[in-house]
Amino acid sequence: MRRKPMIWHEAVAAFREVLSDPGRTLRFAGMPALVMLVLYVIIALTHPRPVDPAQEQAWEDEVLPFYLLPLLFHYWFYARMQIWWARWVLLADDGVAFLSPSLGRRELAYLGWSLAAAVATLPVLALLYPSLAVLNSVMVSLGMEMPEAVVNGLAVAAALPLLLIMAGVYGRLMVGVVPVAVGEAASFRQGWTATRGLSLRLTALSLLTVLPLLITLLFSRLTDPVEIAASYAVSVGLYGVGWGANAVMLARFYGLTLGRTRRQAGMVAPS
How many helices (H) and strands (E) are present in the chain, helices listed first? Predict the structure, then answer.
């Protein structure tokens, strides 16, 4: 019996696919990533983060509306990476130019289904409030007074298992969204059924492939405008690698569980 590859090896293989051809990765990122980067850099240079923490709230209120436009390109960038990496894995199709808008029914459908998958995981959060209430009751009954940092740490510990469950549910549903990339109908039921028994594996791979996105959190406290602008350029690259690896992983899951592989490209009409 053929042994399944280790989860770590699967994650590395997904990253290797994305990093093996920087030109392809750049084309898949394309115009949305470029426009998003330019807009973020303009905001960073024209509305620098204040050094004084007391002024930060006022600064956030002022710049928040300006972030709405690059946020649209942010999601466009995400959809484009997911779709074209899936098409490459499943159909060996990388025929998109860097400046091609590549925004149409397919991209909008993918974003819509992705949003629906995210909303579908929200009921899991309903379990968070009872968990925190129980934790608070225990602390009160024992007369425990803990520092705020400790209380926050316990809250995170209580929320972490639920967040992992949400990641697993989201990943299983998103396998059913992959068909949108190749011009077929999405189906949450199909994704859920095809990944039965693979929840833990899919959760682990989902988390591993988006690790580069977490690195961008290190830039959140920068205040120098030039450093912030540079951090946005690095962040776009990290998002491209993370989203690309995640898309490759999901497409391979779809191919393995539902029998669609690059070798069968001739059997599928490109959209």
Answer: 11, 0
| Spatial CA neighbour of 14 closest among 195, 246, 170 | 246
- Between these two residues, 117 and 103, which has the higher pLDDT value? 117
Buried b or exposed e, range 154-188, using 16+ CB within 10 angstroms: beeebbeebebbbbbbbbbbbbbbbbbbbeeebbb
**For residue 209, what are its two tokens?**
């492939």
Name 127's Cβ contacts closer than 8 Å, sequence gap at least 6.
162
Q: What is the pLDDT of residues 242-255, one digit of tens each?
A: 999 999 999 999 98
Give dist(CA 216, CA 236) in Å, integer: 9
CA distance 194 to 198: 9
Return the half-sphere exposure (C-beta side, CA atoms, 13 A cut-off) of residue 123: 4
Q: What is the DSSP code string of 163-178?
A: HHHHHHHHHHHHHTTG
Q: What local confidence, expressed as pLDDT, does residue 38 receive?
A: 95
The set of long-range contacts for 105-112, using a CB threshold of 8 Å and a minimum separation of 24, is 106/180, 106/181, 106/183, 106/271, 107/76, 107/79, 107/80, 107/83, 108/79, 109/180, 109/186, 110/79, 110/82, 110/83, 110/177, 110/180, 110/181, 111/75, 111/78, 111/79
Count of Cβ atoms closer than 10 Å to residue 135 Cβ: 15
Contact 87, 264 (CB under 8 A): no
Dump pLDDT digits (tens) for 44-99. 888 888 888 888 889 888 998 999 999 999 999 999 999 999 999 999 999 899 98
If we measure between CA atoms, which residue out of 102, 46, 100, 62 comes closest to residue 79?
Answer: 102
pTM as predicted:
0.84
Confidence (pLDDT) at 266: 38
